[in-house]
Amino acid sequence: MKRTRRQHLIVYLGLGLGLVLVIGPFLWTALSSVKPEREIRRDPPTFWPQTWTLDNFAELFDRVSIGTAFANSMIVALVLVATNLLFCSMVGYAFAKLSFRGRDLAFGLVLVQLAIPAIVVMMPQFVLIARFGLVNTFVGIILPTMVTPLGVFMMRQFISDLPDELIHAARVDGAREFRIFFTIILPLCGPALATLGLITFLGAWNNFLWPAVVAQSENMYTLPVALNILNGHESTHYNLLVAGSVVVIAPILFLFVFLQRFFVQGVATTGLK
Length: 273
Hints:
Shape: globular
Helix content: over 70%
Order of helices and strands: HHHHHHHHHHHHHH
Number of strands: 0
């Protein structure tokens, strides 16, 4: 009994230490967002604010078009979530339940794309976007990631575990593939769709490099690109950066809290344990 209690105590201490390491930076950022800049630059630094202020957020909204950048980020993220949920699930269904020539080879190519860094294909993508005249447009920002290899892989893994008898019964009743997909397969993919939606939203919301390349005017900046204006060459406004970081992180935290149950269930059932 004493040995079991000791083991439980060690586990709890380890989990508590991990929680502190994970939560600590977020908590420090949130507390620093309500500190004046002189306190943020103080040496040694203070963890708990000695002077509370909301002037950082007021100055942030004065210097940067946060409203426009927030709207741009939301548009890009929501459209990418919608397109990835639809197209990745359709491609995943084809790989999992349909038989066609070259299916295994095509899926192997999808897996190969998971190993290719995004920076490698960024230049060819930009050349194509520029030739189509899509630079500095929402379409140019959204188009390259409307379907992702990770999304296709996740949906294929989840749909593969669904019973084939449901599809066979629907085909016997005369249902076509699109009807089978939308009325039978898609409603059963709730956990996987929630997981893919959260991952896609997180990636689109935090993406900096591609929007910075494509968006060439301030009215097209997303939040990470707009906040980069505060990172000056001569001086950096740390109080505004931490306030902006809170604005960027807050929607992600709320989204994860609401979808946490589906996220855990989706990860546990798509071969990503």
